[in-house]
Amino acid sequence: MPKGRPNTMNNYGVLLHELGLDEPLVTPLRERFLQPLMALLYPDCGGGWLDSHRAFVVKYAPGQDRELGCHYDNAELTLNVALGKAFTGGALYFGGLFQAPSALTRPLEVEHMVGQGILHRGGQLHGARPLGTGERWNLVVWLRASAVRNRLCPMCCRKPDLVDDEGFGDGFTREEPTTVDVCALT
């Protein structure tokens, strides 16, 4: 069975589309629950036009990934839910948008609690402090709006140069036949 990395920063985890969970689980979650909520909370950054996603579970444990450095997501909006297990440490920290990195001089820290999720803008600088003990598993859903990203790639901040890809790709679309695409510049 093929196994891709969840993202470029985490080494341990699984992409939900590789388990066949996009259509039966994640797409209905996005369309029925997250999009209406995000349209109210984040109308200015594509919350009402979410039309694709990348969903994965990441694992933090001693001897594996224990922390995650400061970064921003390849998404307009992100949902991050602590699934379990028992753990200490590993607080999330948040700064400003990646276009203003000096905002991280005084980050906001949020303790992850099993069964609770955090919604934030994909372009918001954030990371995870080192895990103290135990294991933490997180469900992360990168929510994407092609109406936003087709104008400006959120990773390279340029008009995207598209190449064909499978699945939802990076959430870009073309007016032509229904294909999914990634920005070749990132």
UniProtKB/TrEMBL annotation:
Does Endoplasmic reticulum appear among the keywords?
no
- Cofactors: L-ascorbate
**Does this UniProt record's set of keywords contain Amino-acid biosynthesis?**
no
Q: Which SMART domains match?
A: P4Hc
Question: What residue stretches are annotated with the Fe2OG dioxygenase domain?
Answer: 51-145
Q: Which GO terms describe its molecular function?
A: dioxygenase activity; iron ion binding; L-ascorbic acid binding; oxidoreductase activity, acting on paired donors, with incorporation or reduction of molecular oxygen
Which of UniProt's keywords are assigned here? Dioxygenase, Iron, Metal-binding, Oxidoreductase, Vitamin C
One Pfam family name from the record?
OGFOD2-like
Q: Which PANTHER family match?
A: 2-OXOGLUTARATE AND IRON-DEPENDENT OXYGENASE DOMAIN-CONTAINING PROTEIN 2
Instruction: Report what the protein is called.
Output: 2-oxoglutarate and iron-dependent oxygenase domain-containing protein 2 isoform X3
Lineage of the species this protein comes from: Eukaryota, Metazoa, Chordata, Craniata, Vertebrata
Gene (UniProt): OGFOD2
